[in-house]
Amino acid sequence: MERIFLFIYQYRAFFTFLVLELVAVWLFLQNNQYQGARFFNSANGVVAAINGFSKNMADYFSLRQTNQALAEENAMLRYELEKRNRQLENIKSVTADSAIIRQYNFVSAKVVNNSVSRFTNFLTINKGSDDGLEPGMAVISQAGVVGKIKATSRHYSVVTSVLNVDVMISGVLKRTGHFGTVQWDGSNPDYIHLKYIPRHVKPVKGDTVITSGYSGVFPEGILIGTVSDVQLSQEAPFNLVIVKLAQDFRRLAWVTVVRNRLLPELDSLELRVSNFQ
Amino acid sequence: MNRFGIFQAVLFFVYLLVQVMLFKNAVFFHTAFCFFYLGYLLRLPVETNHLALMGVGFGMGFLVDLFYDSLGLHTMACVLIMYLRPYWLSVLTPQGGYDSGAIPGVAHFSLQWFFVYAVPLVLLHHSVLFFIEAGGFDYFWLTAGKVGASILYTLLVLVMVEVLFAGRKR
Fold this sequence. Notes:
By secondary structure, chain A is of the alpha+beta class. Chain A has helices at residues 2-10, 12-32, 45-58, 61-92, 98-101, 263-276, and strands spanning 104-114, 120-125, 138-140, 145-152, 157-164, 168-173, 179-183, 191-198, 208-211, 223-231, 238-245, 254-260. Chain A is built from 6 helices and 12 strands. In chain A, the strands form 2 sheets. Chain A has a 6-stranded antiparallel beta barrel. The radius of gyration of chain A is 23 Å and the shape is globular. Chain B is mainly alpha-helical. Chain B has helices at residues 3-23, 38-42, 50-68, 73-91, 111-133, 140-169. At the A-B interface, α2, α3 and β2 of A face α1, α3, α4 and α5 of B.
């Protein structure tokens, strides 16, 4: 027994190294699970406050209020527009369902922290669970898609940007109606890839790519970008479409969070069906 | 805690804040990153306790991770280089051994010595950081480019800062 203690004491540096490294790996894996690690991220109050301070230094003082007012107005108008769209759709159906008319709700938020250069990019916004935000909600801007909420604290949320090699969203070529997977390749923050568009489809430079709405997170028809290049090698079964993102992520200042009130219903229905099989 | 300890503790937070408020936003061409906080870890006195080194590395990595939303990533890289640092320093022992209180930097030694000391540790740190962040070797050349550019950038800043501040003290 004594010799074991002596052995451990002799190699204490190595054992300490092992323990600390294992803790680090554990933290890393925790954080990478979706919606994991609720506390230790930049939605934490102190961290977010310092980030916010550092971001505010860069803002022009006079433009801030104006921007805020405009962004709030935008969110309100978007809500009205979506409501009107749903109403128009419902004119054809027998009864108007208020749940469907008010399906999407919008909250505007300011970006306090942002990155575009890493393989896994995140942004922090200044609205949290107090404003009804929850992990999994979609984040968009006036120009197009931005990402999905990863974690929330009371006043801040961390958003997984679409500029993240782990994020995949469903996109549609508007002209032809074919859908594929949109995923970033980690190199240029101006471009994103649209994959799995079959060979026989011929996307043209300038075609619009929008969200499909299949996952229920993003509303249907939010702009992702425009086709800038199509790569099709001899043996590939699919086109690789390079899409120029509509939103310049380096200039992201205000975003809108989309809340789908019917998402739980959609999820539970799909879960029930998949349990049947 | 003596005066030196307090000075080191203050310095710890100075490096941390400069990293997360200044250098976090100063990225060139989406490839060159500056991990300025490494300067603090590399420049701890030679005779610092091995366990304390790893503890400080863990703390620094963890705090930086909070700001980068990459929990565990910087922590892993920092603990690794802090574990290897004493072994590497003993390999590089000059004739007659280290002076007491020697700080492994340009001021106590030479520029050449500092590069021999720092380059492998910074290389290791950046490789762990970028390859784990990229999730493996799928984007090998892109990641290797980031590692190379970031080493140059980080070392340049570290040497410049040290020359500026050491020059004023002496």
